[in-house]
Amino acid sequence: MPGKRGRRYFSQLSEFERGLIIGMKTAGWSTHHVAGQVDHSECVVRNCWEQWTQEGTHAWKIGSGTTRKTTRRED
């Protein structure tokens, strides 16, 4: 589709990008403008901002993800 920005599926935000999003949103930028600057979808920006406003942090949650089936020693 011409004129459409390609989506970056399964991309993860770096710490720098998270800080950039929070800084721009704090300065009063709209979600649409922030998404254009960091080249991510508006949904990613909204989720990052919601986590910041609700939890006060932008870091990854400890313990998220699937559990290991084997121990590191077994590997």
From TrEMBL:
Top-level taxon in the UniProt lineage: Eukaryota
Gene3D superfamilies: Homeodomain-like
One Gene Ontology CC term in the entry: nucleus
Database matches in SUPFAM superfamilies: Homeodomain-like
Entry protein name: Transposase IS30-like HTH domain-containing protein
Localization: Nucleus
Protein's gene: NCL1_35029
InterPro entries named in the record: Homeodomain-like_sf
